[in-house]
Amino acid sequence: MLNFRAFKEIKGDASFRKFYRNKTNNSIIVFAKKEKVKNLLNYDAVNKILNRNKILAPKLLSQNFKKNYIEVEDFGDDTLYKLFKNKNVNKEKIFKKIIKLLIKLQSIKDKKIKNFKNQQFKITEYNNKTLLNEANLFCEWYTPTKLNRFKNKNFKKNYQKEVKKILLNLNLKNDTFVHRDFHVSNLMFFKNNIAIIDTQDALIGNKAYDLASLIDDVRFKTTSKFKNKILKYYLKNYEKKNLKKFINDFEILSILRNLKIIGIFMRLALRDNKKKYIKLIPYAWEMINHRMRENREFKNLKLMLKQNFSKYVS
Predict the structure, then answer these.
(1) For labeling, which of 82, 237, 279, 300 is most exposed (least CB within 10 Å)?
(2) Full DSSP string of 111-141
(3) From CA 227, how far away is CA 127, in angstroms rounded?
(4) Predicted TM-score of the model (pTM)
C-alpha cells in the first residue's frame, strides 16, 4: 500500500476525494473512500472514452480499488482559471479553443467501455428527473437558511411545480456527451493542449448544458458582452432554423444549473465546513437574474424568486 505521507496533498476539491502528488512517478493519487465507484471506477472509464476520442484526460497508471485509490497522469497545476489571472492572456482566443474542444467532446458517440475491473461501464442519460433532483438542492440547502419553515414548505411546493413546467419546454434531445462541470477550473493547460479533468459525472444529455456551464461559470466572472461573443462563436455554424430552440435550452439549463449550484455551495458550507463557497453565491444569483430578464418563459419563476429573495432578483 502507498504511504500517503510521502506525497503532497492537493487541496481545493469540493468532493469526497483527496488528491496527492507523487513527484517520483509524475502522477496523481486519487483517494476516495466514499462514492468510490463513481470517483475511481467511473472516473477512469470516462477518461478512457475521452482518450479513445483523442481528447486529453488523465490516463490510469495503476489502481488499488480495495485500498480506495487509483494513480493517474499528472497534468500539473495550470488550470485555465489560473492562466486567466494573467491580465496579458488573450481570454477570447483561449475561449475559442475551449469551444473547439467542446464541439469535439460533443461529437463523441461512445457510451460504453470496460472499466479497470473488466466490467462494462455505460454512460447513462441526463433526464428531466435528474435535472429536477439537482434543481431541488436549492430548496434542500439554501432556502431553509433564508425562509421560515412554513414559507419554505410553501415555496418548495410551488418551485417544484414551476421547474417541472420549465423542463417540459426543453427542445433538444438527450443525445450528447455532457461533462456536467465544464468550466475553466476543470480545464488544464498541458503541453500546449487543453486537458479535461473531473469527468466522473458525465452523462448523455442536452447539447446546451456544457456551454451554459462554461459561459455562465459561477467561479469565473465575465461581462455580458463577453458571454454573448462566446455564445455567438459557438453558434456560428449552428442551423438557423434551430437557433431559437438552442438558446431557449441554454437559458433554461443555465438558470437551473445556477440554482443547483447555490444549493451545492450552501451544502458545502453547512455540511462540509467549506465556507469559501458562500462568497460565490451572489454571482450565481446575478447570472440567474441575467438569464431570466428577457425571457417571458421564466415569468412565474422570477416572480416566485423575487417575492422570497428580493435582495438578488430584480
Answers:
(1) 237
(2) -EEE-TTS-EEE--B--HHHHHHHHTHIIII
(3) 26
(4) 0.94
